[in-house]
Write a structure and sequence with these properties.
Radius of gyration: 26 Å
Shape: elongated
Number of domains: 1
Largest sheet: none
Strand content: under 5%
Structural class: mainly alpha
Distance between the termini: 102 Å
Order of helices and strands: HHHHHH
Number of strands: 0
Oligomer: single chain
Number of helices: 6
Helix content: over 70%
Length: 168
């Protein structure tokens, strides 16, 4: 009888130990997830810092990209294309991080705001984006929401710009 009672107590203590271990494991996983989210947000911020730094270091191309319908030399075209590609890759990276739960919904919405701001500030990137849309067969039906949004926003900008050009 005493042995059964002892086994019951040992079994209860073992179960409590398992529960404490599970609580600890959940807390550790939660902390690891928070670290991953912070790392993703920090990486995204670093990407933008890197892009802004490269823009500061190349003011001539940025001045052209801020103009609608710029005429590019061959070297400027390559710079414009890689600037557009860098921007697109940053947006796609952010979307993938949101899909995988590493960035917040607020950050996702911020990507769409950023797309609108970049189109407004650097309409000279539109030919480069058109080149990428054609090369990668992207349009408003793209599986990537950021690319579908970018395509639609670029088309809207071009329509609005064309309408402004026709106004007396």
């Amino acid at each position: 009888m005493k042995l059964d009672k002892l086994n019951q107590w040992l079994s209860l203590l073992a179960n409590v130990g398992v529960l404490v271990g599970l609580v600890f494991l959940i807390a550790e996983l939660n902390q690891a997830n928070r670290i991953a989210v912070y790392t993703a947000e920090s990486t995204r911020s670093s990407q933008f810092i890197g892009m802004n730094t490269s823009r500061i270091e190349n003011p001539e191309i940025i001045a052209k990209l801020m103009q609608p319908d710029p005429e590019f030399t061959d070297i400027e075209w390559v710079q414009a294309l890689y600037t557009a590609r860098q921007q697109v890759n940053t947006w796609i990276d952010a979307e993938n991080a949101v899909i995988n739960g590493l960035l917040s919904e607020t950050t996702r919405r911020g990507v769409f705001n950023d797309i609108d701001v970049v189109i407004a500030e650097m309409p000279g990137l539109i030919p480069a984006w058109d080149y990428l849309f054609e090369g990668y067969k992207l349009d408003e039906t793209s599986d990537l929401e950021t690319m579908a949004y970018l395509f639609t926003a670029v088309q809207k900008y071009k329509q609005d710009h064309a309408a402004q050009q026709q106004e007396p």
